[in-house]
Every structure is written in structure tokens, then in C-alpha cells.
Amino acid sequence: MAEFQRGNRRALSMRDIRPQGWLARQLQIQMEGMTGKLYEGWDSVGSYSGWLGGTGENWERGPYYLDGLLPLAFYLGDQEHYEIALRFVEWTLESTMEDGNFGPVSSREDYWSRFVMLKVLIQYKEISGDARVLRLFSGYVRYLEKELPVRPLTQWSRARAGDLLYCLGWYYEQKPSEEILRLVDLIREQALDWTDLFADFPFVRGADFYYDWQDVFTRHQGEEFDRVMNYHATHIVNLTMGFKYPAVLSWFYDDMDFAGNARQGMRAAGKYHGVASGALNGDEHIAGNDPSRGAELCSVVEYMFSLQVLLETFGDREAADQLERLAYNALPATITEDFMSHQYLQQANQVLVSKAPRDWFNNNDEANRFGLEPHFGCCTANMHQGWPKFLKSLWYREGEDVLEAMVYAPCRIETQMGGKWVRIVEETEYPFRNRIIFRFEQEEPVRFCLRLRVPGWCKSSRVKIYREGAGLAEEEKRKDWKPDGPGISLEKVWKKGDVVEFYPEMKVHATRWAHGSLAVERGPLVYGLDIRERWEKVKQTGMFSDFDVYPETPWNYALDAKQEFQVEERMVGPVPFSKAEAPVVLTGKGRRISRWKLEHHSAGKLPEGPAQADCPEEKIRLLPFGCTKLRISQFPWYKS
Ligand SMILES: [Zn+2]
Q1: Per-residue pLDDT tens for 58-84?
Q2: Which residue ranges does the record assign to the Non-reducing end beta-L-arabinofuranosidase-like GH127 middle domain (predicted)?
Q3: CB 3.0 to 4.6 Å from 367: which of 27, 265, 345, 417, for a disulfide?
């Protein structure tokens, strides 16, 4: 039987953290872009929404949108957009039905869309303290207790039951009850068991190796169709949501090594389907690790949220490395710099963005276009949670004694430790630079342990502690600020004016990927070939445009495997992930491989190294992956 046994590690409350520096600018760009404009510009989440009592979309899109709009508006203090989000929240809070269910009546039988709305309401409660949220939860628990035994979770709700358990875990902490524990037992019985899949990950190739989509699609229907092709277990967004499943089970059970299981699942999925950007290929189902296959934007932001839950639960530093890899590479690369259009699918090696048949499992010919809703509108609704939830993923606390910076980005925190206020400003241009400064600003001295994660790619790091306007602090002379395993623990009485500077060494290094390909990395950033892009507008929908992108310079380069790249650090401009003003540029050498050409409108099969690079050596430029819309990020290589 379930028993609540969650440890005392938590992400900081939304009220305790604010963005600074480049991250604040990124959030502002997002609000000036699609997130701020969709309510007016896209009917799926506009005033006809079923989640406002209208006759429009009544499923996941409204809740998906709010899951990003609400925290974004809150962090930016943007009253106008916060009020738009509140309209949906207010309507939802008043929508509870007699049986305890809530949401649009027209979709009342659907479970899944409710899970997303519960996640929104958790954030709203954290911001506002509004007790009506607990009343809605209490009604929904009552509803599920009666309903699930006769109408169990199926399909999406079964595959994504981890999100429901996450919400119930949160609710249990607010208002413990036997009822919730009984419900958790029942949900575990009905849920798709990701722990079983992660223990021995069965899909070591793309879904097309196991299933012929056309055949399955034409010959089977309904539940049989799901079963025949393992539809939900191979669905990429389900899988990335599923990584949180072992973590949330560990809040209630101790019958297995949940932390190990989650790690095992992520490692296996990464090995067989991962690309250098941190994304998992899935177009729409797991697609193998070829860099020309597609990775869906929903899967990027859902993976990021699962990692936040894993970090809160296990404090696993590998999860933090993975979160930075996704947020600093895959996420910015698949949304335009003005945040006005996005792709459904991105490619690690993306050399042409256009409407054309590609080797996707079953996504359509528009899936890698930039636009309002290329292929399908789920990502249009769901992409907004990426950056705001990332902010909440930066800092963690363990009880009243430990504050941990797990993921690095500029921000300001203000929280209570042992009843005393702690104020820290984190100044940094990480991930573009390796200098991270923590300034203590609280009036009263407070004793606690500040923990800093040492990233997995970092071979050596340095910490400086001093007082503003004075020399090195007494404590620094103790020389014991060495990493203890994967982290550095700094325990002392922190006073106003104390400063900690952390320098994780960022060296350019190569990592190996599918077909023996090489990726060039420096710190958390992966680098891609700078290809000149020609953007062509192909469609206008209200205020949104769709684009194709054509390469104006060659892309078929192999890299000299042994070379040293020259690193040029530039200013981090108003648009952090800008191509024209990329904050870091690497220069090195490459040779073109003339037989490496387009196949099915993507970069063809990657030549295995050492490749026969038949063209003369040239100087090439690499930019941060997140700054590119066309690129090679997994290169063939040759020996010089
Ligand atoms: Zn999507």
C-alpha cells in the first residue's frame, strides 16, 4: 500500500525566484512573441476555448498553454497576460461538477487534459495561495475514486499517469488523506508501467524497425491498434513524460531502486534515440539516433519538466547535465529568435527546412517547417512551459540547511532558511561563459550550506569566496572548497557582502554519436556548422508566418578529428541565442565530402569515419546549436 515518504528536497517556490540578465530577456522575448499573442491570434486557446466555457477546443490545448503562460506572466510581473491566464483559472475553479469532476462538460470523460490543468493549478496555488485549488483537488479525488474502478485509465491517460501522480503527491502534502493513498495504489495498477520498460528498455531501434505504420494503421483500430504497435510506449512525448514516473512512485513506495531505474531509462533512451542537442528522436514515435531524424518540440519541453521532477526527487546531477543540454541547445534551436514561430520536428543535422517528404515515421511533410502550427498544433500550445519552468529548475533546498544551485542561469532568489531571509543574486552569462557569481544581500547573517553542482563535462573547477570591498574571506584560506564528488559544499555563516565566484572549466571537447559522428561541445553548449540561411515566407495566418529555410553555403563538411578550435567570446546581445550576434564562435578546419548529399530532403547517410574527405581543407565556423536553424552538429571526421 502506498505510504507518503517523500524526502525534504524541493525546488524553490515560484515566489522565491526571479529571472535576471539574459534569462530575463529571453522570457521577455517569449512574451512579446507567441506566448503573449496566442490568446488573440490562435483560436485553439482563444476566447472560444472550452476551458472558458466556449464551444472551441476542449482538450489539452488550453491547459498546455496556461502551463506556460501563467508562470511566464507571473515571473515577468506582466499584469495584462496574468489576467488572461486568470480567466481560464477562474473558469476552471468554478467548473467543478456534482460528481467532483471539472473542466468542459463536452470533454468530461477525458482524464488526460485534466492532469495538465491540475499542474497549472498547482502553480497558481503556489503563486496566490488560493484555497479554492484544494477544494477542486478534493472534488477530483472523490470523482476518480468512484470513476477509475469502472472506467480505468486508457491510452493517453494511462501512458501519462505519472503526471496525475505528480499532482496527487503535491495535493497529499497540502492535505494528507488515506483516500489519496488508495487512489495512488489504484492508479499504479492501471498505469503504463514505465519502470518495467526502463529496467530493460526494449526499443533499441526506431519504431519503423518494429512496425509498419501504414500496415498497422490500415488493419487495426482502437485499442487493438494501440496494442499491436505499442503505440503509447513508443510515442516520444509519452516517453519523455514517463521519465518522471519512477520519481513520483518513489514518493509513495520503496519496493525498488527508483532513482536507478529512472537513470537507466534515460541512459537507454539516450543511447538508442538521443542526439547531441539533448533531444530524443521521435517523429512521432521513437526514431533511432540518426541525426537526420526528427525530435518533437513537445518532447523537449516535457523532458525538461520530467528532469525538474527528477532533480527535486533524487538530486541526480546527470539529470541536471541533461536539463542544461536540452534547454541550452534543443529548445532555442527549434523556435525563431523572435519567438513567433517554431518547428514540430527539429533535426540534429538540419540542412533544409521545407515542405517535403522526409524519413519520418508518420509525421507529415510540413513537420520541420517553422510556423504557427506545422504538422499539428500540440507544440504550439505546449512549448510555452519550457523557459518559465526552467527558471524554477535552477535552485533546490533540502530542509532548512542546504540550498543548492543545480542548474546555472542568471537569477535572483529570496527565500527563508531556518526562519531567516536569504537573498542571493546569481550573476552570470553561463552557458556562454564559465564565470558564475553569487552575491549575498540579506541583512541578517544566516548559517547554511550552499551547494554547487559540478557539471559532468567539467574536469576542474575553482571557487573564490570573499567579501565585497575586502580581501579573501577567512574561510577561503581553509582550502577545503574542493569538489566532494559531483558537488561543492560551502557551509558557513553567510553575510551581506559575501561573494562566491565559481568557475567550472569549459574546454572544447568532442563527443561521439550515431555512426561514429563527432559533436563539438564547450560547457553545456553543443556547436553546429554556421550555414548561411535564406528564409522564405510560405504562409500567413493572421499575425503568424510560416517559413522554409534554404542553405546558401555548403553543409557537407567533415571535421579534422584532432584539431584545436579557436574560441571567440563575444557580447551576449539582446537576443541571447542570436545567429547574427552569436555569443561564442568557434573557428576550425574541415573538408567537404562531395558524395555526402541530400537524401529524401535531409542530409544523407552520414559517412563513417575516418571519412574520405576529397576536398581541400577550409576554415569553418561553428555557432552554438541554439543559435542555428540550419546546421550540422554531428559531423563525419577525418584524420589530418
Ligand atoms: Zn507537440
Answers
A1: 999 999 999 999 999 999 999 999 999
A2: 406-503
A3: 345
For residue 349, the CA-to-ligand 1 centroid distance in Å is 20
DSSP string of 435-504? -EEEEE--SS-EEEEEEEEPPTT-S-EEEEEEETTSSB-GGGGG---S-BTTEEEEEEEE-TTEEEEEEE
- Mean pLDDT to the nearest integer, 226-252: 96
Say how far apart CA 624 and CA 69 lie, in whole Å: 27
Q: Which one-letter amino acid corresponds to residue 624?
A: P
CA of 382 to the centre of ligand 1 (A): 7
Nearest to 148 by CA among 113, 190, 179: 190
Task: Provide the pLDDT confidence category of residue 483 given band limits of 50, 70 and 90.
Answer: low
Query: Which cell is 31 given?
Result: 512574451
Q: How far is the CA of 438 from the centre of ligand 1 (A)?
A: 37
d(CA 330, CA 324): 10
Report how far apart, in Å, the C-alpha atoms of 220 and of each of 215, 232, 362, 592 are.
8, 15, 16, 46
Give the per-residue pLDDT at 471. 65
What is residue 574's DSSP assignment? S
The whole-angstrom separation of Cα 152 and Cα 69 is 31
The pLDDT-based confidence of 227 (bands split at 50, 70, 90) is: confident
Distance (angstroms) between ligand 1 centre and the Cα of 236 equals 10
For 598-611, the pLDDT digits (tens) are 999 999 999 998 99
> Crossing angle for the helix pair 161-174 and 112-128, nearest 10 degrees?
30
Smallest CA-to-CA distance from 45 within 37, 30, 57, 54 is with: 57
DSSP state of 14: G
Distance CA 202, CA 537 (A): 42
* Domains of the chain: residue spans and CATH: 33-191 (no CATH), 398-428+435-504 (2.60.420), 509-638 (no CATH)
As a whole number, mean pLDDT of residues 232-245 equals: 98
Q: Distance (Å, rounded) from C-alpha 385 to C-alpha 406?
A: 19
Range in 155-159, 207-211, 511-515 the model is least confident about: 207-211
**Whether residue 473 has pLDDT greater than 80:** no
68 C-alpha to ligand 1 centroid (Å) = 14
Q: Rounded to the nearest whole angstrom, what is the distance from the C-alpha of residue 298 to the centroid of ligand 1?
A: 4
- Whether residue 281 is predicted with pLDDT greater than 70 in this model: the reply is yes
Q: Which residue has the cell 576536398?
A: 615
Q: How far is the CA of 352 from the centre of ligand 1 (A)?
A: 20
- Name the pTM for this structure: 0.98
186 alpha carbon – ligand 1 mean position (Å): 29
Return d(Cα 401, Cα 566) in angstroms, integer: 43
Measured in angstroms, how far is the CA atom of residue 618 from the centroid of ligand 1? 39
Cα of 380 from ligand 1 centre, angstroms: 7
> Distance between CA atoms of 520 and 529, rounded to whole angstroms?
10
Whole-number Å distance, alpha carbon 404 to ligand 1 midpoint, is 32
The pLDDT value recorded for residue 476 is 55
Q: C-alpha grid cell for residue 105?
A: 462538460
Tell me, in angstroms, the distance from the centre of ligand 1 to residue 420's CA.
43
From ligand 1's centre to the CA of 296, what distance in Å? 6
Q: How far is the CA of 347 from the centre of ligand 1 (A)?
A: 15
